[in-house]
Amino acid sequence: MAACSRLSSLGIRVLAQRVPWQGRCCLQETAQLVGVRRQVACRFLAQLTPRNNIKFKLDEKTAHSSLELFKKDTGVLYYMLGVDPTKVPANPERFREWAVVFGDTAITTGRHYWEVSVCKSQAFRIGVADSDMSREDCIGTNNSSWVFGYTHRKWYAMTTNEMVPVSLVGKPDRVGLLLDYEGQKLALVDPEKQSIIYVMNTNFKTPLCPAFALWDGELVTHSELQIPDSF
């Protein structure tokens, strides 16, 4: 007589067969599931949410006047406001109060991964934000943005103007961001060690854009990257 059991950790229905053995009954798993290993299960779970290789550049229309884009709009450089401001035409999409710039691609589904070279800045925020968030706000100060920041040689996670310290020894030259839209998570990644440093739980509801704030030096973005297999 056939029976079904549930592999609760995966949510997979497993077909099993009840057979007699020495007066008792045992469950004999179907051949397809014999030898299934933990890593296979992990890969299955990762595939439940679509993987996408986001490709974006920085959107000059959103850039505050103290920011200059370079490297074919994949890098951003900070100038002290009033010394040598960049010539960004006034428009409704431009950030007016804070040195913020958005990526030019909106995210509405899937898992995405990109990296940022941070070695030439000592004060910045990187993350995601609602594409229509107020241009009067700074990313991390409202409930429309989720960021990881670095200042005074310390990392932090931030949303709704609340900072949570992130333990990280030193500062890598390059960090990664792993976004899971359906999973409602944003992770800070150490690309060299292939490890997740910190995960923020979020409440994404609207299209998101990669978001960057900068008060020193420069940042360079790297998109259209494969999500590492270990994630």
TrEMBL record:
InterPro entries in UniProt: B30.2/SPRY, B30.2/SPRY_sf, Butyrophylin_SPRY, ConA-like_dom_sf, E3_ligase_FN3/SPRY, PRY, SPRY_dom
B30.2/SPRY domain mapped to chain residues: 36-230
Record SMART domains: SPRY (SM00449)
Matching SUPFAM superfamilies: Concanavalin A-like lectins/glucanases
Highest rank taxon of the organism: Eukaryota
Pfam families found in the cross-reference section: PRY, SPRY
PROSITE patterns noted in UniProt: B302_SPRY
UniProt protein name: SPRY domain containing 4
Species classification: Eukaryota, Metazoa, Chordata, Craniata, Vertebrata
Gene name of the encoded protein: SPRYD4
